[in-house]
Design brief:
Layout (H helix, E strand, L loop, with lengths): L1 E5 L10 H8 L3 H12 L5 H10 L6 H8 L8 H10 L2 E10 H11 L3 E10 L2 E8 L6 H13 L6 E5 L5 H4 L4 E5 L3 H4 L4 E3 L5 H10 L3
Parallel strand pairs: 1-2, 1-5, 2-3, 5-6, 6-7
Antiparallel strand pairs: 3-4
Helix pairs in contact: 1-4, 2-3, 4-6, 5-10
Length: 212
């Protein structure tokens, strides 16, 4: 048994969900400023997440859902997942983003499971609050360690694919680590680097690496 874990925003999707939500709610500049601070290391992932989601307070849930379901999958995303599942892999997604998007694309792409955060809503509008299993910079690593332990998998059985700093923690628990159109910090820890937006290349690498 082998486990493949994908990041969602910027990896499976050619979008960042929070940016698309911000654009639809006309708060682009405010959200971009917080994102910039996070990338510069001025605030941590949890703070950046909660501050950005707070700006979405009052957004109609119907609009947020429409935006989340309108994201653009990376080229050959479904084909990649289909090939991996046909080869017997468990394929899941760990995302610091939101279940509104990940659960929808779980069905579209054929993922086995997704783990992400939940945008709270009341009376059909967002409250500006968020909760879930992917709230912190180390959440993906904690989840991968637990998931692998539950399935009886070693690091050599795990493949992690991502693009950003919050994917570093899951890289610690996978022997095959693929940086996909990624930030320099993630590339430093990767065993493989793909700079072309084509997830078919990911399937090629994974299947070659795990060939008996």
């Amino acid at each position: 048994m082998k486990l493949v874990v994908f990041d969602f925003d910027g990896t499976l999707m050619d979008n960042e969900t929070i940016d698309e939500l911000a654009a639809a709610y006309s708060i682009n500049d405010e959200v971009s400023l917080i994102t910039k601070e996070a990338m510069e290391g001025k605030i941590d992932f949890f703070s950046a997440l909660t501050k950005r989601v707070a700006l979405l307070k009052g957004m109609p849930l119907s609009l947020a859902t429409k935006v989340a379901h309108s994201l653009t999958p990376m080229p050959n995303a479904k084909e990649c997942i289909d090939r991996l599942k046909e080869a017997g892999f468990i394929v899941v997604c760990f995302s610091g983003g939101f279940s509104l998007a990940t659960e929808y694309f779980k069905e579209v792409l054929g993922l086995d499971a997704t783990f992400s955060n939940i945008l709270h809503a009341k009376d059909c509008v967002l409250t500006g609050q968020v909760g879930g299993s992917m709230m912190f910079s180390d959440s993906k690593g904690v989840m991968l360690k637990s998931f692998a332990s539950m399935l009886g998998l070693s690091k050599s059985d795990c493949i992690a694919i991502g693009d950003g700093a919050n994917d570093l923690s899951m890289f610690e628990y996978a022997d095959t680590r693929i940086a996909f159109c990624a930030k320099p910090k993630l590339k430093e820890k990767a065993t493989h680097i793909v700079d072309t937006k084509d997830l078919g290349l990911i399937a090629d690498i994974v299947l070659q690496e795990t060939k008996c």
